[in-house]
Design goal:
alpha/beta; five-stranded parallel beta sheet; seven-stranded parallel beta sheet; 5-methyltetrahydropteroyltriglutamate--homocysteine methyltransferase; 772 residues; 44% helix
């Protein structure tokens, strides 16, 4: 096919779409089902209606081929676990008795059975359920969900492409099941898994699938020759099948690198590649391997992870170059649109001109179809769209919102000394112990307490004008009083105020910092039914006035025990926002760090002796390629130290991280120079404690003993046993006792019971320690 005919054949598609619905109907239906207010059949009806609505919206926007199978009640990797029959033994009875109940038990656990471990999906804030596989795992195909959803779309008269997690990525994301031999690698199960994929592909072909997409994002990471050989073998075997649809192997989030030639020569009919800035090297690499003759190329030129409008002319230039490298070039976003909100038109509080700088999922589908039209018919067919796009890009570039000379001058004046504490840790810790007088194995929580319905109602009433600010603040004060009283009665050593006044750990601060924009309906799935509204980091950042000092001081006035000041760190403020793309992220992080530094210093001046600066996104944002990591970690750790470096030696700085793999950033954790770090550890059985010990981490740490992402209440003995495991890695004088994460999403009954058990466990194990 010539470049001209390839252009004429260009079509628009997407890899996936937000699941929740315009008013988070899926979240409400699922949570209603959990509470017994919604039947299983009603939940299925809601889900089917949302799928139909999504597909119809995509088709109406001009998307030629809609995705199926990307919709999920909880997580698409968990759906894959069901599809291949890799149900953990502890969940088999529940799944057999009631597949829907068993599915949610794997995701959330029950009082008697622990859930699957949860961690971040590559370098995003989306969490997936980690498959547990062992040498005895027996796979069995169950394509019912995938086939049913394909048939739903075909019945609407749509061209549909099922989307599956690819077999190589599925195995690379898995972890050894409990009891698996040391050194077991799930990838060794590939030959056992491929026949199951073959069966699913045959079922989809029989149901009417012409193409099936197999997502292999794990191949954009550094991979060993053995892993690349496994990928080559997988697609050689799947490609050799006779009873299958055409295969589109998709990669995203970064450059494909060494895996590109492997997939380019595989006997599959198409590849999908990311061509946004993060993966721009894919263009030259594709040319270097001779392109994709006789194959379909799906070009991800619209950023599926950020919300700024696309530069249409730049994307058309990229697409034009690609025309000579494949038999057919289609246009797509760089990844599933799961990672962005649904629709900008729902936003009423953002100034209309600024709103034109933004593209959520529906706007991105419009960009994709515009680019496909321009590629197929020429730029003359999209003259008006190009003119409007140029105007929007110029408006943003020239806006005073984006540049504040005072912020830039302050950032330029930063010295290395600004990012260092005045004394080394060994001297600081002595001062802190003398000042705080805490027992061995001190107990605390991560920060937030349950956000009750009354609190949410009060916040909604304030927004709606049904109560005034004074009435709302009285409600917040009452909640803080209750939280402080509970913690004192339970016996916690270092208290928190509970964050009753906060809507979200990033949004709350973003709404008080200049340079940020906040949305009203910009919901994005974080995990399960947990949705967040990432703010938009649009310009230079500064702090007009203190943000947390008043509420922290009020909480401290209610107790003699230390109350932690609670802040979100600069890296997480970037990672859990839609960050500006017009300057290096390190520059933006420095601006945020300086604003937070002012808050830290004001907290200390107001008498706060323990200040926690949370960085749960430090590992999440780690670049997928090893070569890119040193530069990121340099500016990320500098930003944290700049935030915390101005306090006295006897002020104790805490940080917190959760739900990520920490082993490969232990040195960076050390470089933060925090006095205490709390980390997720309950689901991973204290793995991070062993990793800290292996590194020789010299500071204090609190690996969590209570998994807050599950409604189950751990017993005191269960928490005590985790604590004993932690003590085998970290000495008692440096070990804290805390939950994995904040308690915002939990209910009060389970919180009360779990924290009482946590304190009992700490006292029990403290009593087992040898007398000093």
């Amino acid at each position: 096919m010539t470049a001209k005919s390839a252009a004429a054949a260009a079509r628009a598609t997407v890899y996936g779409y937000p699941r929740q619905g315009p008013n988070r109907e899926l979240k409400k239906a699922i949570e209603g089902y959990w509470k017994g207010r919604v039947t299983a059949d009603a939940l299925r009806v809601t889900a089917a209606e949302l799928r139909r609505s999504n597909w119809q919206q995509l088709a109406d926007a001009g998307i030629h081929e809609v995705p199926t199978g990307d919709f999920s009640y909880y997580d698409h990797v968990l759906d894959t676990t069901v599809m291949v029959g890799a149900i953990p033994d502890r969940h088999r009875n529940a799944v057999a008795a009631d597949p829907l109940e068993g599915y949610f038990a794997m995701a959330r656990g029950t009082q008697d059975v622990a859930p699957l471990e949860m961690t971040k999906w590559f370098d995003t804030n989306y969490h997936y359920l980690v498959p547990e596989l062992g040498p005895d795992t027996v796979f069995a195909a169950d394509s019912a969900k995938q086939v049913a959803e394909l048939k739903e779309a075909l019945a609407l008269g749509l061209t549909a492409r099922p989307v599956l997690v690819g077999p190589v990525t599925y195995l690379l994301l898995a972890k050894p099941a409990p009891g698996a031999p040391a050194g077991f690698e799930p990838l060794t199960l590939l030959d056992r898994l491929l026949p199951v994929y073959a069966e699913v592909l045959a079922d989809l072909r029989a149901a009417g699938a012409e193409w099936v997409q197999l997502d292999e994002p794990a191949l954009v990471q550094d991979r060993t020759p053995a892993e690349l050989n496994s990928a080559g073998r997988a697609y050689r075997d799947l490609g050799a099948l006779t009873d299958r649809p055409r295969l589109l192997v998709a990669s995203y989030f970064d450059r494909l690198g060494e895996a590109l030639p492997v997939l380019a020569k595989a006997p599959v009919e198409g590849l999908a590649l990311d061509f946004t800035e993060a993966a721009a090297a894919n263009l030259d690499a594709l040319a270097a391997v001779g392109g994709l003759p006789r194959k379909r190329l799906v070009a991800g030129v619209v950023n599926g992870r950020n919300i700024w409008v696309n530069d249409l002319e730049k994307s058309l230039t990229t697409l034009g170059t690609l025309l000579g490298l494949a038999d057919r070039v289609d246009v797509a976003a760089s990844c599933s649109l799961l990672h962005v909100p649904l629709d900008t038109t729902a936003e009423r509080d953002i100034e209309p001109q600024i709103l034109r700088w933004l593209a959520f999922a529906r706007q991105k589908t419009a960009e994709i179809t515009t680019l496909a039209k321009g590629l197929a018919r020429g730029t003359g067919a999209i003259t008006a769209e190009l003119a409007a796009n140029r105007a929007d890009l110029a408006s943003r570039a020239g806006s005073p919102i984006t540049r504040d000379p005072a912020v830039r001058a302050r950032a330029a004046a930063v010295t290395e000394a600004d990012g260092r504490r005045s004394q080394p840790y060994a001297e600081r810790t002595a001062a802190q112990r003398a000042h705080l007088r805490l027992p061995l194995l001190p107990t605390t929580t991560i920060g937030s307490f349950p956000q009750t319905g009354e609190l949410r109602t009060a916040r909604a009433d304030l927004r709606g004008g049904r109560i005034d600010t004074a009435g709302y603040e009285e409600r917040v004060k009452a909640e803080i009083q209750e939280v402080i009283s509970f913690q004192e009665k339970t016996g916690l050593d270092v208290l928190v105020h509970g964050e009753a006044e906060r809507n979200d750990m990033v949004q709350y601060f973003a709404e008080q910092l200049t340079g940020y924009l906040a949305t009203q309906h910009g919901w994005v799935q974080s995990y399960g039914t947990r949705y967040v509204r990432p703010p938009i980091l649009a310009g230079d950042i500064s702090r007009p006035e203190p943000m947390t000092v008043r509420w922290t001081g009020y909480a401290q006035s209610l107790t003699d025990r230390p109350v932690k000041g609670m802040l979100t760190g600069p890296v997480t403020m970037l990672a859990w926002s839609f960050v500006r793309d017009d300057q290096p992220r390190g520059d933006t992080a420095r601006h945020v760090a300086l604003a937070l530094r002012d808050e830290v210093n004001d907290l200390e001046a107001a008498g706060t002796s323990v200040i926690q600066v949370d960085e749960p996104a430090l590992r999440e944002t780690l670049p997928l390629r090893t070569a890119d990591r040193p530069a990121y970690l340099a500016w990320a750790t500098e930003a944290f130290r700049l935030t915390t470096g101005g306090v006295r030696p006897d002020t104790q700085i805490h940080t917190h991280m959760c739900y990520a793999e920490f082993g490969d950033i232990v040195q960076a954790i050390d470089d933060l120079d925090a006095d205490v770090i709390s980390l997720e550890a309950a689901r991973s059985h204290m793995q991070v404690a062993r990793e800290l010990a292996a590194h020789g981490y010299p500071r204090e740490a609190g690996p969590g003993v209570y998994d807050i992402h599950s409604p189950r209440v751990p017993s005191a003995e269960e928490a005590a046993e985790l604590l004993r495991t932690g003590l085998r890695a970290i000495p008692a004088e440096r070990l804290w006792v805390n939950p994995d994460c904040g308690l915002k999403t939990r209910g009060w009954p389970e919180t009360r019971a779990s924290l009482a058990h946590l304190v009992t466990a700490a006292r029990t194990v403290r009593g087992e320690l040898p007398a000093s």
